[in-house]
Amino acid sequence: MNFVQPIRDMDQIYYIKKFLRERSERNYLLFVTGINSGLRISDLLRLRVRDAKRMYIDLREKKTGKQKRIKINKALKKALADYIKDKDNQEFLFKSREGLNKPISRSTAYNILKEAAEYVGLDGIGTHTMRKTFGYWHYKKFKDVALLQEIFNHSSPDVTLRYIGITQDTMDQTMDSFSL
Q1: Helix, strand or coil for residue 109?
Q2: Burial of 22: CB neighbours in 10 Å, binned 0-12, 13-18, 19+
């Protein structure tokens, strides 16, 4: 498994959204939901239309088994509104095109993100990139590692900072200003 990075450039986020939206509303919303919720791909893919109609996403995390509640922010609510209006509540939010009511696979989600990342010239991308991007920008805005640690259910602030790439950014900055 490769170590993936958050998307640190807002222009790249914009162009990934644009690229995905031009090709598929579902794929666009997968990305937008991922970067606005901080959910793991295993939890994103289990979401149903009924979950997007509420003020909060309430779920039991697949990985940890812990209960999780995420408020759906205004930007995400707006993005989802048209997409879900004519869909059945039981339908998966990111439904496979294979005819059955099942979600896209993790590998399909990865391929969607990989294609968009290649379009904007990004490497080191994976399905966790969405979660890490959420964390990176949340930290940049609020500078509250304890809150982000709680959102991610991490064991320590150090784990959270390393996970979202802040530790790497700090190391890179010190190396830029260090020489012997």
Answers
A1: helix
A2: exposed
Contacts with 97 (C-beta within 8 Å, 6 or more apart), sequence order: none
pLDDT tens sequence across 125-143 = 999 999 999 999 999 999 9
- N-terminal to C-terminal alpha carbon distance within the chain: 35
pLDDT digits (tens, 9 = 90+) for 94-104: 999 987 889 99
Residues with active-site annotation? 40, 63, 128, 131, 154, 163
Q: How far is CA 92 from CA 48, 100, 122, 149, in A?
A: 4, 10, 29, 29
Could you tell me the pTM of the whole model? 0.94
Q: If you write DSSP's letter for every residue of 71-83 in order, what string do you get?
A: E--HHHHHHHHHH
Decide: helix, strand or coil at residue 67. strand
Distances, alpha carbon 56 to alpha carbons 7, 43, 70, 76, 144, in Å: 25, 14, 5, 11, 21
Structure token pair of residue 11: 């222009």
Strand, helix or coil for residue 5 = coil
Burial bucket for residue 15 (CB in 10 Å: 0-12, 13-18, 19+): middle
